[in-house]
Amino acid sequence: MNWDDTADDGTAERLVGASTDREEQAVEAALRPKDLGEFIGQEKVREQLDLVLRAARARGATADHVLLSGAPGLGKTTLSMIIAAEMEAPIRITSGPAIQHAGDLAAILSSLQEGEVLFLDEIHRMSRPAEEMLYMAMEDFRVDVIVGKGPGATAIPLELPPFTLVGATTRAGLLPPPLRDRFGFTAHMEFYEPAELERVIHRSAHLLDVEIDPQGAAEIAGRSRGTPRIANRLLRRVRDYAQVKADGVITQEIAGAALAVYEVDNRGLDRLDRGVLEALLKLFGGGPVGLSTLAVAVGEERETVEEVAEPFLVREGLLARTPRGRVATPAAWAHLGLTPPRSSTGGNGQQDLFGA
Ligand code: ADP
């Protein structure tokens, strides 16, 4: 395996953020399911992928290109490695932002071995010229390498060995249709159910040699935002706490106390999420308020609020995006233990939005 690139989205310090440092990547690698049988949940995707891979193996052919969409930490990288393992093929890992020029992509493609799996994370962030080169590579296993500049430039065709592209994106809708259409198999990964996350946690605890009881696993699962990566990360922090403050065994009580220390609340909101909600409720009476104003109030970049905190708050039904701005839902008031202002006095319109 070959890591060409490390994602860095500046959220390393967040317990619920993306995976950024190498140490964490090493732990993640150790916890990764190695085959489809070990992969928990995502039943439909697993079943369909199993058929695709079996059929390819039976034909003695390279598997079709696969597009995986879904939020960070749901197992896209893991699945790409499983695809390679099931096809007994090597894998190369890179990402859209690492491919700035078509030449970067040409260099990678031309060095692939026959049958190799190329995992292209954040495929929607590839540059336009690279994307166009990829169309031809996916369809005809061929690229045109442009040599020279201006009128004297010539295109030299280069044959590629058959390979399997596994593209990953947070949203398939971000991909231009011509690219999307070139994938033979497209799978959307859903957030995990609490029971599935409990299985992930028990499995990881076993691999990390940590003792955990069912209630302890349930407590961590409930705060993991439907995401195995976060479940594994919270498990490791709770393990630390259990070792230092108790006898090392993770119970519900230990898990709750540990996650209180790390400021991850009982619904999985961390300090940033709560800060956004608190500002929205306490400073703006529940909204509507513009995103930029809200971001200034919490002392964060607009993008951080929009891309990091909001998707989860919206999914949890705590915040709504409306044409007039961000609005807290009744559930947000309840979660923070605050009473919403009466619509007749508040006059901010949020009660009307929810028909309360
Ligand atoms: P993504 O590429 O979607 O961001 P990863 O494949 O890197 O996510 O998964 C993050 C972590 O979560 C990995 O360490 C992996 O062990 C764990 N994980 C993801 N999906 C599963 C699953 N279905 N079963 C068990 N562990 C999983």
UniProtKB/TrEMBL annotation:
What the entry lists under Pfam families is as follows: AAA_lid_4, RuvB_N, WHD_RuvB
Q: Specify the superkingdom.
A: Bacteria
CDD domains documented for this protein:
AAA (cd00009)
Tell me where it resides: Cytoplasm
Keyword match Nucleotide-binding: yes
Name the Gene Ontology biological process terms. Answer: DNA recombination; DNA repair
Binding positions (ATP): 31-32, 73, 76-78, 139-141, 182, 192, 229
Positions of the UniProt region annotated as Small ATPAse domain (RuvB-S): 193-263
Which residues belong to any copy of the AAA+ ATPase domain?
A: 62-193
Residue positions annotated to bind Mg(2+) are 77
> Which catalytic reaction applies to this protein?
ATP + H2O = ADP + phosphate + H(+)
Q: Where are the transmembrane segments?
A: none
**Example GO molecular function term?**
four-way junction helicase activity
| SUPFAM superfamilies the UniProt entry points to | P-loop containing nucleoside triphosphate hydrolases, Winged helix' DNA-binding domain
Quoted from the entry, the domain comment is: Has 3 domains, the large (RuvB-L) and small ATPase (RuvB-S) domains and the C-terminal head (RuvB-H) domain. The head domain binds DNA, while the ATPase domains jointly bind ATP, ADP or are empty depending on the state of the subunit in the translocation cycle. During a single DNA translocation step the structure of each domain remains the same, but their relative positions change.
Q: How does it assemble?
A: Homohexamer. Forms an RuvA(8)-RuvB(12)-Holliday junction (HJ) complex. HJ DNA is sandwiched between 2 RuvA tetramers; dsDNA enters through RuvA and exits via RuvB. An RuvB hexamer assembles on each DNA strand where it exits the tetramer. Each RuvB hexamer is contacted by two RuvA subunits (via domain III) on 2 adjacent RuvB subunits; this complex drives branch migration. In the full resolvosome a probable DNA-RuvA(4)-RuvB(12)-RuvC(2) complex forms which resolves the HJ.
According to UniProt, the name of this protein is Holliday junction branch migration complex subunit RuvB
- The gene that this protein is the product of is ruvB
